[in-house]
Design goal:
- The chain has helices at 76-79, 82-95, 130-137, 142-161, 218-221, 230-245, 255-264, 284-292, 304-314, 321-324, 329-339, 420-441; strands at 38-39, 43-51, 55-62, 67-74, 106-111, 118-123, 125-126, 128-129, 164-165, 174-178, 183-187, 194-195, 266-267, 347-349, 367-369, 392-393, 409-410.
- By secondary structure, it is of the alpha+beta class.
- It folds into 2 domains: 21-123, Phosphorylase Kinase, domain 1; 128-412, Transferase(Phosphotransferase) domain 1 (Transferase(Phosphotransferase), domain 1, Orthogonal Bundle), CATH 1.10.510.
- The chain has a 6-stranded antiparallel β-sheet. Strands 8-10-11 form a 3-stranded antiparallel β-sheet.
- The longest helix is centred in the last third of the chain and has 22 residues, at 420-441.
- The N and C termini lie far apart (55 Å).
- Keywords: Kinase, Membrane, Transferase, Transmembrane, Transmembrane helix.
- This is Serine/threonine-protein kinase PknB.
- Residues 43-316 form the Protein kinase domain.
Length: 442
């Protein structure tokens, strides 16, 4: 079902008269008595969209505005967890401070007095999560990637400017709404956000790790209080690596081993996978990824905006992410093709500075990154990616794939001294966990 503005009158595709959404029959699901119910006096549940660990998601209609919405009704065990309930409340409160085109709108969070259930109400999105795109296509075309990263950067920079760190960026939380021009991105799930504002209430115990292991920055893996917006840079870089190389940069058999890999190993340069990928990866991207995935946040790319711009430059684009976010896939594909015909001039990627602190006179100097675009003859230019028909989807996280292709890793030389105790600590946790499991088994 597609929903158009109330004043549309006729379908733009076939010219047939449109019905008001409230007159469309409710899906018949006998085992869900909530269907057809009106929660909080205004949110009518029309059909079940998905089930998740935190709640069941419905497509619904806001009877006061006659607009389509997504309603997440929280499970009873979640409601009993005060911290979990507070995180949903925080997601709603923070979303109200982030009215941005590239961040999902969370419209309401309240308890239905009649049934006693808690519900989170969001705008309904047509499209799919980046996770589903990667599961289906393995990689993302350069023009689609640049447009997506540019939009994500604009949304996140807006959040960072208000002292909010997302802290759980992953393909599941980037929702792609397909249009004729290309994807329009919506960043989901600010429930794990770290609020760096002075008087912000803290929900995470010091030393506790929050986030998704494959995309977690080293300082986040350690549960450090100093974590800031540069952790989001690392996560977005890890997502980008997966989009271009078809595999995550850090692997392991379980959560602790993935975190140990993040803390002790470096990913292979993405361009080394040329010949195994559908789209050629420019050598210039290796330098961009190396800085953005730096273990030490003080030498990491300083903002998501700078990272998105650096990725575009690696593909030979001119300008920056502000312009690319609004260019069509076709226009970006043309620029990528033109970029392959010329090597980029030497550029410098600024070393990171704490975005929430005063300028540091002893900050690391910028790191020069000059590389030829591609080695050898120019690779064939793939056809521009044009998204297919939009798929109606909920605002929920898709299941993590059971396995990723292994990526060869190498231990870098000259490991910084600050990391040594962390490596020992993580290793102790892994070994200690194994011992504890063995003891419990007996």
């Amino acid at each position: 079902m597609r929903v158009f503005p109330d004043d549309a009158g006729f379908c733009p595709a076939d010219g047939n008269p449109l019905q008001f959404a409230s007159t469309v029959p409710i899906a018949n699901t006998a085992d869900d008595p909530r269907l057809g119910a009106k929660l909080c006096g205004r949110y009518e549940l029309r059909r079940v969209v998905a089930d998740g660990g935190m709640g069941r998601v419905y497509e619904g209609i806001d009877k006061q505005t006659n607009t389509r919405i997504a309603v997440k009704v929280l499970h009873d065990d979640v409601v009993k967890d005060e911290v979990a309930l507070e995180r949903f409340k925080r997601e709603y409160e923070i979303s109200s401070q982030l009215p941005h085109d590239y961040i999902v709108k969370v419209l309401d969070f309240q308890r239905d007095e009649a049934s006693g259930v808690w519900l989170l109400v969001m705008e309904f999105l047509d499209g799919e999560e980046l996770r589903f795109v990667l599961k289906r296509e393995k990689e993302v075309a350069p023009e689609r990637l640049v447009r997506m990263l540019s939009q994500v950067a604009l949304g996140l920079d807006g959040a960072h400017a208000r002292q909010f760190v997302h802290r759980d960026l992953k393909p599941d939380n980037l929702f792609l709404c397909g249009t004729r021009e290309g994807d329009n991105v919506k960043i989901l799930d600010f429930g794990s956000v770290k609020d760096k504002n002075k008087d912000a209430k803290k929900l995470t115990v010091l030393g506790t790790t929050i986030g998704s292991p494959y995309y977690m920055a080293p300082e986040q893996a350690q549960g450090l209080e100093t974590l800031d917006a540069r952790a989001d840079v690392f996560a977005l870089a890890a997502i980008t690596y997966e989009c271009v190389a078809g595999a995550v940069p850090f692997t392991g058999n379980n959560g602790p081993s993935i975190l140990l890999s993040i803390l002790t190993k470096d990913p292979v340069p993405p361009s080394s996978r040329n010949g195994q990928t559908k789209y050629p990866i420019p050598a210039a991207l290796d330098d961009v990824m190396e800085v953005a995935l730096a273990k030490n946040p003080n030498i990491r790319t300083k903002s998501v905006g700078d990272f998105a711009t650096a990725v575009g430059h690696a593909y030979g684009l001119e300008g920056d992410h502000h312009a690319w976010a609004r260019l069509s896939n076709a226009d970006l594909a043309k620029q990528v093709a033109e970029g392959r015909l010329r090597a980029p001039a030497p550029r410098r990627i600024e070393a990171a500075a704490d975005p929430f602190a005063a300028p540091d006179p002893f900050a690391a100097k910028p790191i020069a990154t000059a590389s030829p675009m591609m080695a050898g003859p120019a690779a064939p230019i793939p056809a521009p990616h044009m998204p297919g028909p939009a798929v109606s989807g909920p605002i929920v996280a898709s299941p993590q794939p059971t396995a990723y292709a292994d990526v060869a890793m190498g231990v870098p030389q000259g490991r910084p001294g600050w990391l040594v105790p962390v490596i020992v600590g993580i290793a102790a946790l892994v070994v200690g966990g194994a011992i504890a499991f063995a003891l419990l088994a007996h």
